[in-house]
Amino acid sequence: MDALTRISPHVWQVPFPVGHVYLVALRGDGYAAIDTGLPGSAPAVLDALAALGAAPAALRQIVLTHCHIDHMGSAADLAAATGARVLAGALDAPCITGAQPAPEPCHSPAEQVLHESLVAGFAASGRPPLRPVPVDTALHEGDTLDDWPEPVRVLHVPGHTPGGIALYLPESGLLFPGDVIGTDPAGTQVVLGPFNVDRAAAVASFRRLAALDGLETVCVPHGVPLRTGARAALAAATPETDWL
Ligand SMILES: [Zn+2]
Known about the structure:
The chain is an alpha/beta fold. It contains 7 helices and 13 strands. It has helices at about 40-50, 70, 75-80, 95, 110-125, 200-210, 230-235, and strands at about 5-10, 10-15, 20-25, 30-35, 60-65, 85-90, 135-140, 155, 165-170, 175, 180-185, 190, 215-220. It has a 7-stranded mixed beta sheet, covered by helices on one side. Strand 8 (about 155) and strand 9 (about 165-170) form a beta hairpin. It binds zinc ion. Zinc ion binds near residues 66, 68, 160, 179 and 195.
């Protein structure tokens, strides 16, 4: 596993080739995981916890930003290994539990090319199949999360998926945007996440997150975290024309 990166006093990034996981130190020695990577990623997340001196049972919460395989893919394995509760946006929960298929994104031509290369890569990688997982807590706009090191707000950010959520910590200006926001691999350009079910809604969610008061740090699942000056980087972004 690549090295853990400490993003803030309470937040670490567990890097993956596709879909980073973030760990948050909770009050009382526990941890939360934000997303879980592709199927087969659980051992690396457990290694990351061990590197922080934590046993598997220290993982108390698995918060899924949305229902895509590179975010919920290892939630079942991690929940089984740790006993953590699974939390997810209410409208995406049926796709995470397996009650409904994940809704198909509406691809632009550029997104179609990218999607085909990613699907070919997944097929060649021999990863285990996706397992659904029960959702213990369905999250809604304005909800808070117990035991976080500072207040956290759940934001419903539809468009990438119907029930996608972002998490915002106003005191430190730290945002987990899910796939609404990404960066290019070099971390120099901020972009709208690709593969959206409703592109106009996704752009509106991007603009909403970009306007958050006090925003400083953006923990993107794809690309490089924005560690400082996130507001300026987001203000310079042009999500309306990304991926067209
Ligand atoms: Zn996604």
